[in-house]
Amino acid sequence: MSRVLALTLGEPAGIGPDIALAAWVRRAELGLPPFYILADPQFLMRRAERLGLAVPIAIVAPEEAEAAFAKALPVVALGVAVTAEPGHPDASSAPAAIAAIDRAVADVIGGAASAVVTNPVAKSVLYKAGFVDPGHTEYLARLSFAHTGNPAWPVMMLWSPEVAVVPVTIHVPFKEVPERLTRDLIFETGRVVARDLRERFGLARPRLAVAGLNPHAGEDGTIGKEDSLIVRPAIERLIADGIDARGPLPADTMFHDAARRTYDAALCMYHDQALIPIKTLAFDHGVNVTLGLPFVRTSPDHGTAFDIAGTGKANPASLVAALKLAARLAAADENNRRAPAAALS
């Protein structure tokens, strides 16, 4: 199996190209795994020149990328010309971003790459171009089904050495969270998290801490009934399924140092309940990981940062962490695939 990672361009007017170029420049110092970027080579040359980075470009096929990586940034050309300037998305932005995601998934499922690493996209730009999915997570699940015919239950986890968090509901308006939150949703999310923490992260018995929806986890039903009627039964079902889960816990006491040492991942009921703690603790190096897919996908845990694109101010730390984690998880996947064959030999 290939050891090279497929990195998408992301929104070309954002900082994705900047951090990809900066990461390659520091590849040896940072001990980066080999990767290629799916992009317009001429666009990347222009951005590197703008940033004052000496980055030789090698236009390659995926299977040639690993050999080229030491001396040049391997680029798999998509045939989509990019004209967007830093901070200014244009009509080329969405087609380039989507084409890169499509090809990265195809390459990984086809065995040409070991994992997908995605640079940030601008959802508003994609929506204007007719993109129908809420974000990367849902689109990747749809691509996975198109390639394999097997439905996936994608789960977004934000991971860092300090804390790992999972929002059970993701990009929905806060007022819709209570109606979207169901026992099945919490259970299936927890089941996927426990399985991937075991199989990909190597935790023999993952510990899940589940946050309540309401203040004080509902205070025995006096501050909302959802925690006793929805969250608690879902946790009981996880426990019955053999998963180490506890809660519902008051979210305001789950993220101090001593509390974090008691679990491996926190399941949170809505977006900001999960993302505020990890972005407070690990703003520069958190990684977005999509669990529940038949391939590894990671991403920097930040947005397109249009205001600093093309200035050289973008910090590549989160992309570096995403590349390293993708390589680690892909290696675990490969070991898991080899284990049954070894047992039969």
Count of alpha/pi helices: 13
Supply the CATH architecture of the largest domain: 3-Layer(aba) Sandwich
> What is the structural class?
alpha/beta
- The number of domains: 2
Low-confidence stretches: 341-345
Sheet with the most strands: spatial strand order: 3-4-2-1-5-12-11-6-7-10-8-9
As for the CATH topology of the largest domain, it is Isopropylmalate Dehydrogenase
Rg calc: 20 Å
Helix percent band: 40-55%
Q: What's the overall average pLDDT, rounded?
A: 95
The first-to-last residue Cα distance is: 19 Å
Order of helices and strands: EHHEHEHEHEHHEEHHEHEHEHEEH
Shape: globular
- CATH superfamily assignment of the largest domain? Isopropylmalate Dehydrogenase
Question: Which strand-content bin applies to the residues?
Answer: 15-25%
Largest sheet: 12 strands, mixed
Count of DSSP E strands?
12
Main attributes?
single chain, 345 residues, alpha/beta, Isopropylmalate Dehydrogenase, 2 domains, 13 helices, 12 strands, 43% helix
Describe the overall structure:
The chain is of the alpha/beta class and 345 residues long. The chain folds into two domains: 208 residues, Isopropylmalate Dehydrogenase; 120 residues, Isopropylmalate Dehydrogenase (3-Layer(aba) Sandwich). It contains 13 helices and twelve strands. The protein has a twelve-stranded mixed β-sheet with strand order 3-4-2-1-5-12-11-6-7-10-8-9, with helices on both faces. α5 packs across α7 and α9 packs parallel to α10. The longest helix is centred in the C-terminal third of the chain and has 28 residues. The chain is globular. The C terminus is likely disordered.
